[in-house]
Amino acid sequence: MNIATKRWLPHTISAVALLVLLYPLVWLLATSLKPADEVMTSLDLWPSHLEWSNYTTALDGVSGVTVTQLLGNTLLIAGGAVLGNVLSCSLAAYAFARLRFRMSKVMFAFMVATLMLPHHVVLIPQYIIFNRLGLVDSFWPLILPKFLATEAFFVFLIVQFMRGLPRELEESARIDGCGPFRTYWSITLPLARPALITTAIFTFIWTWNDFFTQMIYLFAPEKYTITLALSSFVDQASTSAYGPMFAMSVISVLPIVLFFFVFQRYLVQGMATSGLKG
Length: 278
Fold this sequence. Notes:
Strand content: under 5%
Mean pLDDT: 85
Number of helices: 14
Structural class: mainly alpha
Largest sheet: none
Order of helices and strands: HHHHHHHHHHHHHH
Number of strands: 0
Shape: globular
């Protein structure tokens, strides 16, 4: 194998793999522009003519709720979930990773053990609690638990990162008179930026794509998210609305793609510097 082949072979393999990975997105975009009679019958990737009315119908929304309001509801829930997870999980992780208190190892082991619990196991008692509080059919059941460090996976992720940070910085801060909370906020939190950004990215994507939990707690159409609207779209218009449904799917995917690419830059930058500055 000559030098030119060795140089271009990895790039060729990467390009082919990229095309395979991007094909579902290309298919989704192409299908969203197909006429109704070609969505389920034609095997061609590109439509015979572009049906822009699919996007017009999708923008009208469902049940009298426009796609702008649907996206706003989803963004509110996802944004609240990101803020809650980043703050509460990082605070809990700081306590486990940097503070010494009684039964800390037992509590950490118990927290890690909750990772094995399926989400559906805790959903019923959570629903009973929120129902008695009168918070069902509101955004609170989808946002409030995130501020209570209920996501053990992210707590564990941030704990593992904080344990690798040098303790000399915290000792210097303690000598300067900083307490635990001030040290957490001014020293540890900025250094843990890669783990926090990773938490934010996955929280946003998982919350944005969530369907089951939102279906359990949200009843009124004006409170629907874009995920619930997609299911309602099919139920209302049946097979004749596959084109608008795929068009709304494209609209729902765009914020996720933009969010990932915007924050991925900060993630790579933070990991390149190991989270340390100066």
